[in-house]
Fold:
Amino acid sequence: MTTARTTALEVTNLDRTFDVSPPFLNRVLYGQKRRHLHAVSDVSFSVPAGGCMSLVGESGCGKSTVARLVTGIYAPTAGEIRFAPGKSGAPLSAQMIFQDPYASLNPRWRVKNIIAEPLRELKLRATEAEIQDRVAELLGIVGLNAADGAKFPHEFSGGQRQRISIARALASEPEFLVCDEPTSALDVSVQAQILNLMRKLQDELGLTYLFISHDLSVVRHMSDRIAVMYLGRIVEEAATETLFADPKHPYTRLLLQTIPNVNDPQRDRVAAEGEVPSPLNPPSGCTFHTRCPLATDQCKAQRPELVEKADGARVACHFA
Amino acid sequence: MTTQSTNSAPSRRKRFRDSDLWWSFTHSWSARIAAVLLIVLIGSAFLAPWIAPQNPYDAASLDMWKSELPPIWQQGSEMPYLLGTDTQGRDMLSVLLYGTRISVMIGFASVIFSLLIGLTLGLVAGYFGGIADNLLMRVGDVVLSIPTILIAILVSAVVRQMLPTNLREIGAAAVLVLAITLSGWVQYARTVRAQTIVERGKEYVMAAKLLNVPKHRIMFRHILPNTLTPVLVAATLSFGMAILTEATLSFLGIGMPPGQPSLGTLIRIGNQYLFSGLWWMVIFPVVQLSLLVISVNLLGDWLRDALNPKLR
Structure:
């Protein structure tokens, strides 16, 4: 890894709240209050060009919200998302690979039309013949047959659908791809195929990834840097090997313990106590203190700041 | 590069022959009988100018001496009046075929117009939500709270008064279509709206938004095709309902005029002569109407079951 790489994406102090208030009548009649869900608070990270940054965390920690904020599907409540200029000089635009390959392809469209849509919408090819050639080429790139273009999505397996999804994302010739748990709906054996395909494409096309996952072992395979999120905040961010060798936040250690170990399947593991607290009503101080083995009164009262350590890792914990 | 699949896509025709829908059709007695019956009824109605023995709209071809003839199997009947004649000497079979044609056309047109209005409003309401949704659906609720027949009577009475006298006969069919459409669009709007709300949150819609696909194209090209299955069933069933509504209005005397009788008009006229012994003037239109609506409804029921994956 080179250190002097330029930054492709700079995210600073990103905030997003959702209004989950009960309907107007309920508020008036029953005196219910407006409620806001703080899905993402104060998230900052940067993605190096040509690299892969991963966001990891449990369900509901806000990682998919970050993905949607980055691609522009949601507008941020506060904070800034800045893309570096791409090859053409204009700021990079992000394309997305979605989590559920059964919902991300329109079931009524033929595959060739699904893949051709970016080409047609963005007018990347002039004639219909060129579009069809490009579609066939893209199908080849992701390891499908050109004749598969005439089929409908339901005729494919989950892994094949995810390949179609990747082909569609590649059709718009992006330099930046946001992958929102692209393998979580797939079989373990197929997961590896898709991940290898994505790595290969990264090398061949010089793509930059923002990779979202709840699975640290998948992330280790893919990424240069990893950020661990808990209840809408980044609790630890470090280079991949630093994070695995020396996890500093108790939550990161907990996540690492959940990875099955082939060499020592019977090793002692500490089961985490409790559930993830509701993001509607997050705990005071350090939001992890309800489940943390190290928690003290200080943790309940005061939220730790994200502090950079000597080895380049950033950690938000009073004890790190 | 490893190739993930090799077999090429089958042709459209083969795809149809292999489909679940075709399989379920060939394995359903009621659906096949209903389809054959419907093809015969509608086919003969639309071929009426060529196969009917007489043109009932042409007053010159009517013969008062041939009026009130019974059907062919009874005494006193005459060829070619297979089903007898009415009080004006019109051939019942010809009147029936032409009447069916009018009924089917009015039913079909009102379903098409209800679909156009309902699909568009339902898509807009479901996709945009908020005030547009509230406004459109409350209007729909109000329309639904008034009985269909009442709306139809109101509309046809008002519009008929607005039309000049010489246009009333010609405009009768249009008025009927308008009246049935006005009360029919709501159910499509509701179905499409509910389905649109489900679909608009799916990831394929998000993928289209990422490409800045214009809203109207997301609505009509991405979402609409995925909402059509329940709409297709509703449309088939309400085609039968529309024919019945038209017949009811005509029976009540605010539908098609006696000069251009639909099945409902024929039943109304025949009803007046039932006790004079001219039973064929009312029974044949009634049987024709029943067969038509039953076969449409059987097809609709079959379609609903065939397209419902939970019933397989």
In short: Chain A touches chain B at residues 68, 71-73, 94-96, 98-100, 103-109, 117-118, 121-122, 140-141, 143-145, 147-151, 156, 159-160, 163, 168, 172 (CB under 8 Å). The CA atoms of residues 240 and 310 of chain A lie 15 Å apart.
